[in-house]
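Please fill in the sequence for the structure shown.

STRUCTURE ENCODING:
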């Protein structure tokens, strides 16, 4: 059975999809772009500012299910310019653990004119009682 996850602390989806879906012990987060959750607008700045906003949006959705970045097992990252790969990585590394799998691909364009999007899969840890 699947469960929809939603939080006001992350931006509203820009299309017909959920912020995240929980299935069993896995949580699948839809791709987050650098939208300010309060305004719904793209944040100002370059790849560093946009990556930080994306990571904060991912954090908000994870926290809605009681999860943390250490629970992330896989991300797929989309950049519109691979020349920004190093700058993206510098910010990304301050949020996501090295103990997760990742793919990073270049794309022609992203929703709302974003420079970066990150899709995430997290695992719900066994609860100790």
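FILLED IN BY: designer on duty
SEQUENCE:
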């Amino acid at each position: 059975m699947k469960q929809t996850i939603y939080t006001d602390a992350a931006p509203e989806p820009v299309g017909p999809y959920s912020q995240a879906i929980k299935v069993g012990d896995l949580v699948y987060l839809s791709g987050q772009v650098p939208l300010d959750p309060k305004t719904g607008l793209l944040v100002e700045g370059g790849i560093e500012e946009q990556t930080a906003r994306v990571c904060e949006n991912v954090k908000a959705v994870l926290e809605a299910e009681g999860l943390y970045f250490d629970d992330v097992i896989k991300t797929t990252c989309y950049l519109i310019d691979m020349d920004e790969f190093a700058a993206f990585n510098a910010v990304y590394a301050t949020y996501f653990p090295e103990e997760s799998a990742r793919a990073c691909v270049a794309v022609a364009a992203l929703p709302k004119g974003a420079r970066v999007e990150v899709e995430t899969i997290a695992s719900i840890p066994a609860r100790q009682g």
